[in-house]
Amino acid sequence: MRYCFENAVMLGLGYIGLPTAALMAKNGINVLGVDVNPAVVETVNKGKIHIVEPELGGLVKYVIENQFLKASTSVTRADVFLIAVPTPFKEDQQPDISYVESATRMIIPFLREGNLFIIESTSPIYTTEKMENLIYEERPELKDKINIAYCPERVLPGNVIYELENNDRVIGGINPESTKAASAFYRKFVKSELHETNARTAEMCKLVENSSRDVNIAFANELSLICDEAEINVWELIQLANKHPRVNILQPGTGVGGHCIAVDPWFIVSNFPKQAKLIRSAREINNYKTLWVIEKIKTTVLKFQKENKRQPVVALMGLAFKPNIDDLRESPAKIVADSLLKFEEAEYLLVEPNINKYNGTGLTNYIDAYEKADIIVFLVAHKEFLDLEPKAGELDFCGIRK
Known about the structure:
Blueprint: E1 7-11, H1 17-26, E2 30-34, H2 38-45, H3 56-65, E3 69-72, E4 80-83, H4 98-107, E5 116-119, H5 127-138, E6 147-150, H6 160-166, E7 169-173, H7 176-186, E8 194-198, H8 199-230, H9 234-241, H10 264-271, H11 277-308, E9 313-317, H12 332-340, E10 347-351, H13 366-372, E11 375-378, E12 394-396
Parallel strand pairs: 1-2, 1-4, 2-3, 4-5, 5-6, 7-8, 9-10, 9-11, 11-12
Antiparallel strand pairs: 6-7
């Protein structure tokens, strides 16, 4: 069957939506990127970017200057509509799909027979079917006349452009025709293999991938707690254990952050609370590791006070959720910093090389912080920190000194 994919609308110009929109535009699709934030729209239309991502700046500049991509706060008609908006969880760890629903409602008036509607946002299972029902409730004349599918991203921040093109994709439609249509669309800009399934399986696949990572990190974080109690170097232990040909233990850290691994497992737990026992435990372990880090730092601060009869200067090195990016979403390092700023027993220097400001609190250059601090706390293994010479009074929670 021949499909028409000349024009596409991408709702959401964040860490996934903007790179995907730019990549589509580079490959001959006229793309309108839609975002509710006027500042984001203005920035993109200037050929600039509002996030830190290698190669993205040059790509956006190229597609904007050549009029392959433009940004707006409003939707227009198109052949393909994609949703890449956030899906956070609520305070009770229940998934919040209100952004997906709002984006879908923005699209509904512009849908026409033959259109392709795709959700890329990480979502709990049944979300695509819920949006299908919403569309047909509002536009019953379109029932079985448009294609609806779910296709989650699989990218690593800091390498998004390459991975969008070269990672395999899982594509699940609400019916076989929708799956075929979505596959034909992604084939226009994805070089790797496309794996066809149904929407529900595709949704679960994304959640399972991130839950698997979370469970494995939880094992490493639990090991770090045990090794601290036993006075064993956890980094050396893991390195030695990984010499076994069938063992591959991951690295412990301050916790687990980001919009995917720290969030997605709860989507499974919320739908299957009785069955998802291991997944829940992993989430609890990784969340506890962050609280443990906070208490470890507080204990070190109080010990310094007792020994030196003054408050220490503490450098908190890193706020992002992983090395060498500017993304603070669900960052355990950010949670540590916010908590310690309320613990008024020390002077704190916040360090994050990838951002310019932080919630009204001044940031300190990493070299200045290293030189001034009595206690240096490595929370994120940014590349800038790797060349710093070891110094007395260090706490390493991310493997800088491994």
